[in-house]
Amino acid sequence: MSVELVPVLASGTLEGLYATIEGAIRTATGPVGLLLIGVYSFLIAFVLPLPSEIVLAPASHMNLGLPTEANVALIVLVSGLGKAAGSVFAFHIGQEAKQSGPVIRFVRRSRFDIVSWSEKKTVELAQKYGYVGMALALSVPGFPDTISIYAFSVLETDYYRFAAATFAGSVGRLVVTIAGFASVTALL
C-alpha cells in the first residue's frame, strides 16, 4: 500500500489528525487500501466527523488489477459494509445512552445548533418514514453521518434493519456523489 501521510500539525490539533486521515484515504491503494477504507467507514459511522465521500478518491489508482468502474463498485461495497458495522456499534451505544438521562441532557445542552437541528430532522424522518427515512437522511452528500446515526439509534430497536438502512444510505450517498460528479464532468 502506498499512502502519503500529511503530517499532523505540530500543535497536535484535530485538524492535523483529520488531514492525516483524509490524506491516507485519498492515496490508499491495493487490498490494504480497501481495508483502510473499510476501517475509515466504520469510524465515521460513530466517531469521526469526516466526509464519507472521500473514499471514492483512490478509485482510479487502487491497483487491484480491475477496471476503474469495478474499483468504484468495490469501494462502495466495502465502505457501505464498514459504515453498517460502525452504525451497529453506534446503535449499541445509543441503546445504552437512552437509558442514561445525563447523556441525553448533555447532548441537548450542546453549544452546537446543528446537533439539535439534525436530531429534530432525523426524528421527523424516523417517525414519518422509519428505516427508509434513515436511509434517505444518510444519502445526503456532505451531511455528517454520525449525528443522524446516533439520533436514529436512540429511536430504533432493530439492529438488523438499522444496519441495512445504514448500508443502503451509505451506498446511496456514494451513488448520488458519483452521479453528481459525472453530471458536472459531462458539462465540462
From TrEMBL:
GO cellular component, one term: plasma membrane
Transmembrane segments: 32-50, 70-91, 129-153, 159-187
Membrane association type: Multi-pass membrane protein
Protein name: Membrane protein DegA family
Main location group: membrane
Annotated localization: Cell membrane
Pfam families: VTT_dom
Sections of the chain in a coiled coil: none
Domain VTT: 51-178
InterPro entries: DedA_domain (IPR051311), VTT_dom (IPR032816)
Superkingdom to which the source organism belongs: Archaea
Residues of the signal peptide: none
Keywords (A to Z) from UniProt: Cell membrane, Membrane, Transmembrane, Transmembrane helix
